[in-house]
Each structure stands twice: as C-alpha cells, then as structure tokens.
Design a protein that fits this description.
The complex is a heterodimer of chains A (498) and B (163). With 498 residues, chain A is mostly helical. In chain A, 76% of the residues lie in helices and 1% in strands. The chains are: A mainly alpha (498), B mainly alpha (163).
Chain lengths: 498, 163
C-alpha cells in the first residue's frame, strides 16, 4: 500500500517535473494569484477562458495549469483581503474580517506570512489526503451502476443548491435551467435533435465556454459597471515575520482549519468558500474568548486560510474519482477533461495514472512555488489593485471575446456568449446564484442517461433506487440535506454564514 | 428602454421589476412553458423506456412549479420598495453589443480591427470613460492578444482582412 503510494508519486513527479509542466504549473499558479488579487474576475471565469488555451496543450499540462489557477486564486484572494479589505475571492471574505484588522494594527506582514505558510501546510496535507483517499474511492466508484450514479448526481446537485447564496427556491430553478441547457443537442439514445431549432451550431449541444464566459464573465461586467471604483490605501514597508506568540496561536488553528477544509472540500456542494466559513465558525466555538475574533486575531486568519486551500484541493477528489463536480470550478474541470476526450469517472486513476498522479504531484510543486514566489511579490500584487476597473474590464472583455471564438473557431459562440451575458446579468440582478446552473449543465446529459438506463434495468420500477444499498444511502443523504433546508434553525445559520 | 423615464417608485410595473422574486419566477415559468412547447412532439415513452421527451418534460414542469412558487413568494413584498432588479443603462446594451461586433467582424476584418472595434465600443460602457485610456488599452490589448494567442499559442487566427 505504502510502496504503491511511493511508486505512484514517483510516476506523478516524473510527469509534473517535466520542463513544460513546471512552466504551465508556474503560469497557472501566478495567473491564479493575479485573478485572486483582482476583484471582478474569479477562478470560474478564468478557468473557462483558459479552456481554449489548454486545448493546445497535452491534457495533463492543461489540467495542471487549470488546477494551479484554482489554488493560486486562494493565495491571491487573501493578500488583498488582508491589505486593503477587498476580498478578491469569496473564499477570502472571512480572512478579511481578522486579516484587515491585523493590517490596521500595523501587523499586515505577519498576517500575510501566516496566510501563506498555513496555505502551504494545508495544501501539502490535503494533497496527501487526495493521494490516500482517491484510489480507494475510485475502486468503490467502479462498482457503481446507473442507479448509484443517478443518486450521486442528485446528491451533488442538491448539495450545490444548499450552499448557494440566497434563496434555495431560486437555486433549484437555476439547477433545472442548467439541466435543460445541458440536454440541448442530439439525444444520444435516439439520435433525435432536441431544442436545436435546426441550427447547426446547436446540434452538438451548447458549449461550455459561451455559457461560462457569458454568465460569469460578461454578466458580472455589466453588473460591476454600476458600482463605483473603490480605491485601495497605499502600502507602507512591511514587517513580515510573525512573533513566537503568533506561531503558538496560529499552529493549532491551522491544523483545525486544514481538517475542516479536507472534509468540507470532499462533500457535494463543498469547496473553498464554504470551508473557510465553517472553519471560522469552529474557531469561534473553540476560542477561550470568542470576542477576540473579528478584532485582528491571528487564529481568524490562519484557520480560514488553511481551510480554503485544503477545501479547494480536496474538492478534486470526487471530481477525479467519480466524475462528479462538487462546485462550479470542478464543473469547469469536468468540461476540461471531456474536451480532451477523457471520460470523467472512476476509470481516470487506473486508465490514466500519469494524468491523475501528475496533477497530484503538481499540487505539491505548485504550493511550494506559490509561497516562494508570492512572499517577495506581495508589493507588486497590491500595486496591481491601482488598475482602475474601467481599464480592467476592457482586458476581461478582450479575453472573453477571443476565448469564446477561438475555442471552436466558431463566431456563433461569441454571439451565444453575448446572449448569456444578458441572461447572466439578469441572474445577478435578481440574486439567482449561477453555480447550480453550471453544475446542472455539466451533469444534465449524464443524469438523464443514467436515469434512463436505471429505469431500463428495473423495467420501469423507481424502487430500484431504494433497493440498492449504496444508492439508498446516497438518497438518504440527499433527503437529509433537503430536511436541513426545511429546518428553520439551519436556515438561519446558513443565512448568517453565507 | 425605460431608463428612469419618470415612472415613480409607486408604479406597479416598476415594483414588479424591482421585486427579488417575481421576475425570476416569471423567467422560470416562461422557460418551462417554452421548453414544453418546443418539446411537444418529442416522444415521451414510459418509465420503462423513456423517450427523448421524458426528461425535458420533467424539467419543464419542475421549472413552472418553482416559478409559480417564486412569484407567490414575491407577492406579499410587492407593497414595499425593493432595491434589487435590473437597471437599464448603456452597459446592458453595449457589453453584449461589443461581443456581437466581435463575433461578426473577427472573420471578415481579422483580429486586429475586430478587437479595436470591440474594445472601443466596450470602452463607452463606463460612465467615466476616458478617450486616452481606451485608446491606450486598445493598443496594449491588441499587442498582448497577438503575443499570447498568435505568437505563443499559434491559434489559427488571421490578423488582417482577407483579400
């Protein structure tokens, strides 16, 4: 078992340490940090925009870069949250609470160093968790039949709905819209075109890039253009290192945060932001004096920063082993796998060991690179905040335009993206969370296919979902989630946390 | 576009538009009905052998149901003023429009001219647009795009109009 792990990691590092892959990992990590720093553009948009680029790389290199963007964004988001109280990413919202207070007290340096070091620690631990948990999970996944997959996808979708911001009613609606968009195109069972309006562009289905570019990129620009620019404060010379007292207090918080993140990341609907929120709640529970949190406590930086990085990385586990994305970023990753002709599912680890272990090994490398590179670069990242939004959005538009065109070389995709931009703005204006839509879109065709074959196996008897133990367990878990939604006490906590 | 056309916050229409619940609800209902209409001829089959129409119909009914619930949820709040809702101003027109311009012009005009038009048009969407900044952005972003997409990634994009 242990020797297996070492031979797998050896394989992984031999892939990840090739010059190309080190370079793409570096580009991904730096690019991720950059968009993490900049408010108004997030990892989902960026990864979607980079999809066409990865098309021209080896699959493993492409995924290494996309993964780097995701965890790099966690680093970048904390930098601006601490220094200027602008969380570049939702996962850094919690960090801003205590981090900015520390900066106000002249302790920005220790806060930044702590954030970077606990992220490194959490990144290392959670990557180890991936190494240990993914292979057995994939073995379990191989025994899954259509009913189990149906149950698992339902659980994933409901999970995304539960953690979505705002109304659960609207999140459910968004999920259904996503499922509907997902099945546009040729029905694989019968060959009939559905919702294609006889347009050749729609025959192969709506592509992932126009949807994500439109809703996440353009919709957000339209919405942001109504908000006036916030100008960050200047940065003085920073005293970087934490004191011994800081280390004593931050270490247990980082360990708790990592543990919380590793668990939440794996759960359906989980990911970086939820992990950060949960770990902050844990810190409030365990603190001897909870009132210090929010007033510049180092625990309030260490725990959520460890948790968001751990959660970001362990959310790869269900995506890589079962093909089920737990959050919007993983939905893009599933799309990336499919673009490269890889069928996401339990077969990935055994059929493409170089891909799986290469990505895992690159996470070790990327996390180390991030710390080494970013600590000296903090000044540069912050100065980037001086770019006003009225210049920044022009760059985002440029990449949206070229990205959606170059993906298939089809100008109609750009028009489709423009349409989804208006729809996306509508969603933002009415507080409809787009993440469930994206998950529904990615899972739609597979959910339908598995539903149809389940019914075929059982001869039309829906009891098949309850007669099989794994599928029954998954449906019970889904039911528990639904009950949670209905319980008023949970609703209140959820509203407070989100 | 009713861009602040003097409809006071009292008018029913504007309160419906500003409601956080009713427009999304109507959207779900409309999309559900449209999907039902388009898929009216798709064979539904039965539980044992689901036809291509089965799943879409399930989704459509689900959307209509949730839409109705959302509208009902919004009705009691209609009396109060709401701050959500879309605002019609130039960015909602110009941002999609500049993408459309790019989509229509990138093949006939080539990347350089298409980008110049797109970014120029997008630049007008900001209330504090400055001519000089937009001009510099156009030059810089065209250079950057050519470098990244054409020189480094070698995407099959042509730069100038095909003669």
């Amino acid at each position: 078992m242990i020797s297996d792990l070492f031979s797998h990691l050896y394989l992984g590092f031999s892939v990840a340490l090739s010059p190309t892959n080190i370079l793409v990992c570096l580009i991904g990590a730096l690019g991720g940090t950059l968009i993490g720093v900049l408010p108004g553009i997030g990892p989902v948009t960026t990864i979607a925009l980079m999809l066409p680029v990865t098309f021209y790389l080896e699959p493993v290199s492409g995924l290494i870069m996309l993964a780097g963007i995701f965890y790099g964004a966690q680093y970048g988001g904390s930098t601006t949250a601490i220094l200027v109280n602008i969380p570049g990413e939702t996962s850094a919202v919690v960090t801003a609470l205590d981090g900015y207070q520390m900066a106000q007290q002249g302790r920005a340096g220790p806060a930044l160093t702590t954030a970077a070091l606990v992220s490194l620690f959490a990144g290392m631990v959670s990557t180890l968790v991936i190494c240990l948990a993914a292979p057995p999970l994939a073995v379990v996944g191989k025994s899954f039949g259509a009913p189990e997959y149906c149950a698992l996808m339902t659980l994933g979708l409901i999970g995304a709905v539960v953690i979505a911001n705002g109304s659960i009613l609207k999140a459910l609606g968004m999920m259904l819209v996503g499922l509907l968009l997902g099945i546009v195109g040729i029905d694989i069972n019968t060959g009939d075109g559905r919702f294609t309006f006889d347009l050749p562009t729609l025959m192969d289905g709506i592509d992932f890039v126009p949807i994500s570019v439109g809703i996440f990129g353009l919709g957000e620009i339209i919405s942001n253009l109504r908000v006036t620019d916030r100008r960050p404060v200047s940065t003085a010379k920073l005293q970087m290192w934490p004191t011994r007292e800081d280390v004593r207090r931050a270490t247990p918080a980082a360990i708790r945060g990592t543990a919380v993140g590793c668990v939440i990341g794996i759960l359906p609907g989980g990911g970086a932001a939820l992990s950060a929120f949960m770990s902050y709640m844990v810190e409030k529970r365990v603190a001897r004096d909870p009132s210090i949190l929010g007033k510049g406590a180092i625990e309030g930086v260490a725990a959520p920063e460890a948790a968001n990085n751990a959660g970001a990385q362990t959310s790869f586990i269900p995506m890589l082993t079962l093909g089920i994305p737990g959050n919007a970023v993983m939905a893009v990753m599933v799309a990336a796998l499919m673009i490269h002709g890889i069928n996401p599912g339990p077969g990935v680890i055994t059929d493409k060991p170089d891909l799986f272990w290469g990505i895992v090994a690159s996470m070790f490398i990327g996390n180390v690179m991030l710390v080494i590179i970013n600590l000296p670069l903090i000044g540069i990242w912050v100065s980037l905040l001086r770019i006003p939004y009225r210049v920044l959005y022009l760059a985002i538009i440029t990449f949206c335009a070229i990205g959606s065109y170059a993906f298939r070389g089809n100008p109609n995709d750009v028009l489709l993206a423009a349409m989804f931009g208006v729809v996306g703005y509508f969603f933002i204006a009415y507080r409809c969370e787009p993440a469930p839509l994206l998950l529904g879109f990615v899972l739609g065709p597979r959910l339908e296919e598995n539903l149809r074959s389940s019914m075929l196996i059982s001869g039309g008897d829906p009891m098949i979902f309850l007669n099989r133990p794994i599928s029954l367990g998954l449906f019970l878990a889904t039911l528990a989630l639904v009950l949670l939604i209905v319980l008023p006490s949970f609703r209140r906590t959820r509203e407070e946390a989100l | 576009m009713p861009a602040g056309d003097g409809v006071g916050s009292g008018s029913l229409l504007s309160r419906v538009v500003d409601s956080e619940w009713i427009p999304p609800g109507l959207f779900f209902i409309a999309l559900g009905c449209a999907a039902l209409w388009v898929s009216r001829d798709y064979p539904v089959g039965d539980l044992n052998r689901m036809g291509p129409g089965f799943f879409p119909r399930m989704l459509s009914f689900g959307m209509i149901g949730l839409g109705v619930l959302s509208v009902l949820r919004g009705l009691p709040g209609l009396a109060a003023a709401n701050d959500s809702g879309i605002r019609f101003d130039r960015s909602i027109v110009l941002i999609p429009a500049c993408m459309v311009v790019f989509g229509l012009s990138v093949e006939p005009l080539g990347l350089v001219l298409a980008l110049a038009l797109t970014i120029g048009l997008a630049g007008l969407a900001h209330r504090q647009a400055r001519l000089k900044e937009v001009g510099l952005s156009i030059a810089f972003l065209i250079g950057l795009s050519v470098l990244i997409f054409v020189v480094i990634l070698k995407l099959p994009l042509h730069l100038w109009p095909e003669l």
